[in-house]
Amino acid sequence: MGLAIGWRLVVAGCAVTVFERDKAGNGASWAAAGMLAAGVECEPGELDLLALNRRSQELWPGFAAALEQAGGGPVGLRQEGTLVVALTRDDAAQLRFNYDFQRQHGIALEWLGGAAARQREPHLHPNLAAAVFSPADHQVDNRLLVRALERAFIAAGGTLREHAPVTAIDIVGGRATGVVSGGERYAADAVVLAAGAWSGQVGGLPFPLPVRPVKGQMLALRMDKAAPLLRHVVWAPKAYLVPRDDGRLIVGATTEERGFDPNLTAGGVLALLEGAWRALPGIEELPIDEMWVGFRPGSRDDAPMLGPSGVDGLALATGHHRNGILLTPVTAETVANYVLTGAVDAVIRPFAAERFAARAKVEA
User: Fold this and answer.
1) pTM of the model
2) Helix or strand (DSSP H, E) at 2
């Protein structure tokens, strides 16, 4: 988020420095699967988030093209669509409920029988009960994305300080006037807090920022690049599978409230492999290429905090939870515009941090 917003601000003529606690892009962005699934991830109670997700999904082709033109390089945007599969009758009943709900809210989906789904993906389980095809839900290679953003940001004139964690926002007279990193103060006309799962650890704020790490274990298998087992993104009941251009097959992800626990566990890996194998039995012959842990930035309602913070000069771009890669273009556009003009785009108004303060007053 920091690189994307910084790139937009530099292109607009601002002098921008991004402070990174580790290596740029190596947090949740590096650990993600890169799914752009505004449609199939839509659930009851998330209609404001659906509007935000769909807006960002529409921005993605232009955003990817602009990054490439800026010298960032390709980001692996693939537009085959997404399949959600049901393996049993119970799975199919739940899938039908989700399908009906999503269709009611304008999401274009196609219901498929098991045989029709296997025509699209022949290696899926032969006893597949049903599937839904979402033609607008795609994927991007998140690791290519973060490197492209880094190159584009620097090429446009931005300054990147890696291994330089910000310990506090410097607030004077109720206004953010800079940041503190490595014991030094760096003055700024505006500050954007986009520290992901670590956002709640940044000091100096007059209020606690409700962001927590949500642990996710993931792994990658190695397919034959010339004859991959899978071409679409596939959501199964207990795992999702994301095929990459380089032959990797990403399998994810657990959702665990374990703080910053970096450990892979036997149970987590077993659950992922079993969930993937039930949908795509052929994976049992594939070598394991990599396993890792990431930390999604989760807010109290698992929706992002965007734009106004309640402190003059401080904007927020955090709490994206499982939708960070999907929401990169709309976050960059709206938060950069807020910094430049003070205008809050209607699509991000439901995601102001003040919603938590209002809720706390009601609960009190």
Assistant:
1) 0.95
2) helix 2-11
